[in-house]
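User: Just a sanity check before I run the rest of the batch. Below are the structure tokens for the first item. I only need the designed sequence back.
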């Protein structure tokens, strides 16, 4: 019945349970995840209701770490290579390589953090934002709107 075309329930035929609203079955972890956000390929784990705050804290800490490394590399090149210039990047190739990789990392982490906080402000998970057209409870008019959202000013509640 659940694998038939005309069944519109939220029963997971793999886990054999009724999925709560906002949950999703992850094909990589092969289990249902409550308030599914996304499957993170970098930590090879699903981000859901139980670890979303930790994931955001992890992102922020990684950004701080990347910023510390960038500052350290710039200070090193400034002190040991006679100032910051494009020519002085060749003075210490490994430090320059670390600097470029850290700037790259910082950029992508900033983008990821921005998307996470944008999702929090909207009251939508990444999965709901991408697949809003699939969920009936999100489609009330032109824009996807989360009926569970408490408004963007409740953003501080993620830290509680
Ligand atoms: Zn499942
Ligand atoms: Zn997963």
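Assistant: Here's the designed sequence for the first item:
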């Amino acid at each position: 019945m659940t694998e038939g075309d005309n069944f519109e329930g939220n029963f997971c035929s793999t886990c054999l349970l009724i999925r709560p609203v906002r949950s999703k079955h992850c094909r990589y972890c092969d289990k249902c995840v409550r308030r599914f956000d996304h499957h993170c390929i970098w930590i090879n784990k699903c981000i859901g209701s139980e670890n979303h705050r930790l994931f955001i804290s992890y992102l922020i800490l990684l950004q701080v770490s990347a910023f510390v490394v960038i500052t350290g590399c710039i200070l090193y090149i400034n002190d040991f290579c006679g100032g910051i210039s494009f020519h002085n990047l060749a003075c210490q190739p490994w430090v320059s390589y670390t600097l470029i990789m850290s700037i790259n990392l910082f950029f992508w982490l900033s983008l990821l953090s921005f998307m996470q906080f944008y999702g929090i402000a909207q009251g939508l998970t990444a999965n709901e934002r991408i697949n809003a057209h699939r969920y009936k409870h999100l489609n009330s008019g032109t824009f996807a709107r989360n009926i569970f959202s408490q408004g963007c000013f409740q953003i501080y509640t993620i830290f509680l």
